[in-house]
Amino acid sequence: MITISAFRWVPDFAQGQVRDLRARWALEEAGLPYRTRLLEQGDQDKPDYRALQPFGQVPILEEDGLVLFESGAIVLHIGERSETLLPKDKVARARATQWLIAALNSIEPFLMNVALIDIFYANEEWAKLRRPGAVEFAQKRLSALSRSLGDKPYLDGDRFTAGDLMMTTVLRILKDTDIVTSDRRLAAYIERCTARPAFRRAFDAQIGDFRQAA
Ligand SMILES: N[C@@H](CCC(=O)N[C@@H](CS)C(=O)NCC(=O)O)C(=O)O
Asked: What's the CA gap between 133 and 79, in Å, rounded?
């Protein structure tokens, strides 16, 4: 059976955000059962885990001797077994992959710039000076994303793919601000994607693990 690594507990601000959610959501969309390998604080720095994930992060996926790190690689790997995530049609599949990478490469770094300031450095003088510029840049990318989404329900049209899964988890990074949701199209898009039963199951499973640990 597939095993996904996750933290046994994280502070409130990170609950429902930790990146194993991406793997769990993909597995739920694919209808594949999984179990979790829950890391205690410090486990991620131990040599046995670093041998599997060089950066000491979650998630990793383990199955039959295969070990994969990076949530993008994991979602694409799971997508191989799910037409919901990666359509069979070659062109549609390439575009789903394109959107997944756009989420990770063209959107996430700029939202993380803002999130890191808010979470870790909010009271630092330099952060107060830096934040408006970071928000402005993030908003430029978000406006472009919103224009590209247009009136379509999903990034590539009428059907949800792995690209939407990844984009939604990335957009949720700023869920405690209105930087994303002040755009009505993006707000509705997040609502649409997170209303999927597979998202709810994945989210509840992550939160459920934290509750058990509390
Ligand atoms: N690029 C990685 C990032 C993974 C990541 O940032 N994981 C966080 C939890 S959401 C983590 O393990 N942080 C602990 C650390 O970086 O030491 C991926 O997408 O898998």
From this structure: 36
According to CATH, where is 1.20.1050.10 located in the chain? Answer: 90-196
CATH of domain 90-196: 1.20.1050.10
Architecture in CATH for domain 2-84+198-213? 3-Layer(aba) Sandwich (3.40)
Residue 57 CB less than 6 A away from ligand 1: yes
To test the ligand 1 pocket, which listed residue (8, 53, 55, 69) has its Cβ within 8 A of the most ligand atoms?
Answer: 55
pLDDT computed for residue 49 by the predictor: 98
Note the pLDDT of residue 171.
Answer: 98
Helix orientation angle between 162-171 and 184-194, rounded to the nearest 10 degrees:
120
Position 42 scores a pLDDT of 96
Ligand 1, atom 19: nearest CA belongs to which residue? 71
- CA distance linking residue 129 with residue 24, whole number of Å: 37
Q: What angle, rounded to 10 degrees, do the helices at 184-194 and 197-213 form?
A: 70
Which mean pLDDT values do the consecutive 10-residue runs of the chain (214 residues) have? 97 95 98 97 97 98 97 98 97 98 98 97 96 98 98 97 98 97 98 98 97 86
- Does the CB atom of residue 43 touch ligand 1 within 6 A? no
